[in-house]
What we know:
The complex is a heterodimer. By secondary structure, chain A is an alpha/beta fold.
Amino acid sequence: MRRRLGWGFWLALGWITLVLAAAAAADLLPLPRYDETLAGPPQSGPGPGHPFGTDGLGRDVLSRVVYGARVSLGVGVGAVLLGVLIGAPLGVLAGYRRRAVDAVIMGVNDIALAFPALVFALAVVAFAGASLLNVLIVLGVLGVPAWVRLVRGATMVFSEREFVSAARLLGARDRTVLWREIVPNVSLPVASYAFIGMAVAIVAEGSLAFLGLSVQAPTPTWGGMINEGRPLMETAPHVVLLPSFVMFLTVLAFNLLGDRLRALTDVRQSGLEPVRRRRAERLPARPHHVEEDVLLQAADLRTHFTTARGTVRAVDGVSFTLERGRTLAVVGESGSGKSMLIRSVLGLAPESGTLRGGHVYLDGQDLTELDDQQMRRLLGTRLAAVFQDPMTALNPVRTIGAQVAEPLMVHLGMKRRAARARAAELLASVGIPEPARTLRRYPHQLSGGMRQRVTIAMALSCGPDVLFADEPTTALDVTVQDQVLRLIRRQREERHMAVVLVSHDLSVVAEWADEVIVMYAGKVVERGPAATLFERTRMPYTEALLAAVPKLTDPAHHPLRLLPGRPPDLANPPSGCAFHPRCPYARERCSAEEPPLFQAEAPDHLYACWYPVGTGAGAVETSGVSGMSGAAEVLRATEAAGAEETTDTIEGADSRGR
Amino acid sequence: MIALRLVRLLLVLLVVTFLSFLLLNLLPGDPTTQILGLSASEEAREQLRRELGLDDPLFTRYLAWLGELVTGDLGTSYTTSVPVTEALAERLPVTLELLVAAQLVALGLALPIGVAAARRAGRPLDQALTALSFGLLSTPVFVLGVLLILVFAVKWQVLPATGWTPISLDLGWNLTSVLLPAITLGCAQTAVYARLLRTDLIATLQEDYITLARARGLSPRRILWRHALRPSAISLVTAVGLNLGALIGGAVIIETLFGLPGVGRLIVDSIFARDYLTVQGGVVLISVGYVLVNFAVDLVYVAVDPRIRRA
């Protein structure tokens, strides 16, 4: 508790205690009386006899500040108490009873909030007379609407929680529920706001006093002292500055107490809480061979996040290559690291608390070595992206035209008029009717399918070499899905570009992809040409995905058909093969040792499994053939030697299994 | 939707005017003595009683008063013999200029501060700006005003501490005389606006369309100002409207502090001159204006966020 409140809280509490104690014990302190004129020479600065100096009449400023604190703190505390006493019961009632009671209370409350509070306070005090009691009552009553709103909100939150519903169901009387369950929970937000409310009341009282409309002379008030000291500002600034400083500190202290208490209840938006941030750090990459003639190559790509729960390995050593005119599909369940892989390739992964590793080569150029500006020149022109949800992919407050024309103007240096004309052509090329009209529209005026066409047009605007499509059809209706995928393929053929298609839908992948990588828990678990991978599946996870392929009879937006078990917790992945808790073929070894990527019999087909499906390896193992362990030993030897994991040392085991 | 808001607006206006009307009833003792003073003749009191309709039931008096209010008649001051409406009309431009200037100062400072803080969220600059905002929020407006006068008018003598030059006389001097009051009044709002903008910008920067803008190779500066700022400005627009209440309260103090002949100063001066009809008129003007501005703010949303145009 102490640590989380921070030293600012305790300093503020100390200051308020000091002021409170001084105000309470003012008569006992060795100070001249606040109204004793010529206690010292007039307008003398701070000195040993008068620590805060004296004012124009020679009165001791410190004494006046201390006595003035009685008014300020008295009004601050009093007004808040009054506000709570009236506002809190109304708020609890509105939040707990709901319906008619709530509607009436909140209706009146909304009207009350529509008042310029200080002007009304001023007028009421002016008409009713300036006295401590009047000021206190007016400021207290004016605070009621805010209290009602706050307490109602807090009450509603808690009256929906299980323990309150349970108490109600058990037949507890409303009064009991309110006192036992709701009041204790609402008290922290109330305490937090009480301190802020005191700061507000102190400032309001000060303002009235500054205008001469609070407690009347000779009783000193902070606002009054500041007002009276103004003519002396040139000759004796301390008469104004010291009360100002004390008042500032007091208001600051109350605000700080409120803010820290609020931070206790709400971790997200704690006012002064520093958010720890670190630049992305680099992980070392394993040695790899840079392919000469491929368009895009990822080598041992890693993106890890440091979280409170541990390191999350969102992308963990992914490698692939992609040539022009081909489509690479990345498949896996939600949370398997597909989307983060795309963002990592594009350099768009979050920076805070991130560890990065591996390399990305575009035509042999290492993108991870580029600085931000060099990377920006490639993004949009050579690398382009389309995301899953077209509803969130477009800026809601800018016209389609402004958004599609922008990359043309930024990257190609086109003038506004030319860019808009080109934008219209682009929209037409992705099959949007009335492109000129669409340019003037806002995203919310378009359907989901049309929006996804717009994002594709934007991605294609500068003629990229690689298009990254992150589940481009998941959020769309089945009929629209096919149109969008056709559009992407046509553009790929016309522009001779490469496509990286992220999907969890294997029927889409089987139809549109040339090569496939299957991801699980941030790792590649199977990889190969689409036809081979689907016909001769080796990894049980891929097999399970295939079994779960949605049929046409499924409703739209249907997620994966049930795969047994839950996707792994990336902060705490299972030992050995991450898939083993869900795998129907898992053996002891699977939970003990992580399988490397083995070479299957078909070229370019790799899989990470000790007991691949379709090979009978599992059956061989059950019958206790010892050859398998021999093969494993070969493998261990190669691993120990630091060789690449993708070796063909297991060919023996593979062929024997068949 | 609009009809519902209009009904609510009318309701609020009725309550606000009724409460302003009630103010006179707060006067202790005989209102005629309070308004005319002890030395007034019995005839004058009788006449005032008739004018104020003090013998009629409260609600009848309110309706009569409201009828006159609607036609722009707020009565004639007994101390200055000037019609209240006229006195207010003369002072209103000064207050309006002060309010507009203060909002401009506040927004002009809050935009760069909020954007800079959001862009470097959690880093030292952000923390420093957050602490500064917190400090500004805790500074009463008259304390800040006194400090600024001390620095700019007394020590450096670059700006006048008091006084007012109307626009019609000299624009340059007019701006000089409004600058320090506007900065004083605007500073506290700056803190509010900058914090709001920072929070909303940080949320907006997590959106998909921002990531996609980055994927299109746009510069961070461009993304912040052209893509993220407007979707993040909705709370800010609300706050600009709602804060008018705080701002008007502050204007009363600022006008007194800097000697500006605005509505706020008129109210304060009238309070001390026991010119209650003028005080009442000023309160009516400010509260009705405040309610109307808040109503207008609701309509401005639509301009900022085209999504709402559907509703």
